[in-house]
Specification:
Layout lengths: L7 E6 L2 H11 L4 E7 L4 E7 L4 E6 L18 E5 L2 H10 L8 E2 L6 E6 L5 E6 L2
Parallel strand pairs: 1-4, 5-8
Antiparallel strand pairs: 2-3, 3-4, 6-7, 7-8
């Protein structure tokens, strides 16, 4: 098949301004490109997530997607970080609630979960 990696992850936010602020200002993902698509009444913002991009979309009145209890499909999006404690402290300073830090029983790496403004489960996974 020739897959070489993940190009992008697409996320639809219920409130584009709030989601854009969360991903670009709180998580610190640089904005690569942003465009308003008038025919779809939709914004699209490409964010640099390191080895991939996040495409942040807005659409008028998108339906809610269940994330709890865990539903079939994409479970969560995970970001690698060098210093988990520092990132949890930074998110907490921005009012983002993080779950208690846990240790992956198979890799021994530390991780935690938090949510974006729409409740999408996100993970920080300590690299190293």
């Amino acid at each position: 098949m020739g897959l070489r990696g993940v190009h992008h992850i697409a996320i639809i936010g219920s409130d584009y301004s709030r989601s854009r602020h969360f991903y670009s200002e709180i998580l610190g993902l640089p904005i690569l490109h942003e465009v308003y698509r008038e025919a779809r009444d939709s914004w699209k913002c490409d964010l640099d997530a390191g080895n991939a991009q996040i495409e942040l979309f807005s659409f008028p009145t998108p339906p809610a997607r269940p994330s709890r209890p865990e539903a079939c499909g994409l479970r969560h999006l995970s970001f690698m970080v060098a210093d988990l404690d520092a990132e949890v402290a930074r998110l907490t300073d921005h009012g983002v609630e993080c779950e208690p830090i846990r240790v992956d029983e198979y890799t021994g790496q530390r991780f935690t979960f938090f949510a974006d403004p729409d409740g999408l489960p996100l993970e920080l996974y300590e690299d190293g």
